[in-house]
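Lecture notes, unit on protein representations.

Consider one protein chain, 360 amino acids long.
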Amino acid sequence: MNDHIPGIQVSRAFHDNYIAPRLASCMPALPYASALVGPGSEVLGFDTSMSRDHDWGPRVLIFIRESDVLQQEKVLAALHKDAPAAFHGFPVHIEQTVVTTVPAYYSGRLGVCPSKVLEGLELLDWLTIPSQTLAELTGGAVFRDDIGELTAARGRLGYYPQDVWLFLMASVWNRIGQEEHLMPRAGFMEDELGAALIASRLLTDVMSLCFLIERRYAPYPKWFGTAFRQLACASELMPQLLAAQQAAAWREREQALAAAYRLVARLHNGLQLTEPLEVEPRLFFDRPFTVIGGGRFAEALISRIGEPALRKLSDFRFGGMDQISDNTDFRLLHQRFPRTPEGKSPLRVFFDHLMQGIGC
């Protein structure tokens, strides 16, 4: 991997040395934005030499204004004519170049109507979008933005609104509270495999919570651990997480988890979003099992949610898309199914029905 050139670097050079000069020559009056965003390990900066075997190479997305959409074919024709077969030694697939508008591209990825890309998402919309998608649309690099729409859209998606942030953190603490006593209970019954599986779920929740605490979008499983190592808290937490994951016996696993809970509880208090909460693990009722009491943190966060409807929705505490399911196909429902005439994705319709049911 020492000779690997990051994909963002390759695509930026391709833009600067081919895309921009070609459009300046053929369509000098056309304002546009260009970037590398969306799917692809290089967008998140995690590509290696292994990434080159598929869907990797010099590529640029071009965004034009809605008023210039009739110029789309002319832009493509300008780029296709005499296009190089390779750039810096990498094959150029110019036929895969995307020319679109910011509302069209971002709405398709987010599963919302195009107007919301420019005006902003509603609170419930945020709950329907996987953090991987948000990471893809705010990551990568913008090479040029004459029209301003791309920069503005990325800015609006920069991170969750305050109440959504509180809601999601509360839901993860609640997940911890629901399962933290199950790991030692399984171990107590001499089910080490079951205890290890539950511990892995808890470790995922702890790490997810860290992403939220540091206001970073967590990527999907392939890059989850890699991105976690970039967090400020990782160096302190990694020894405990690895000890819990690699433990051979549940008591050892329990001790490592308790240490991790203590650290994350301190991180929670450091946010100063709630009154300081006790960070020392305690016994689960009269049982000899050590827990942090995740529900305490969930309750404290929920009490600080200002939006009444979202606060009422917190009664269910299942969070957003990332907490509801890790099934890849389910998480892509917002992209794969057509939106309703109102521009709502299938999961948004679910949340709307739920809100109606609880009287919001």
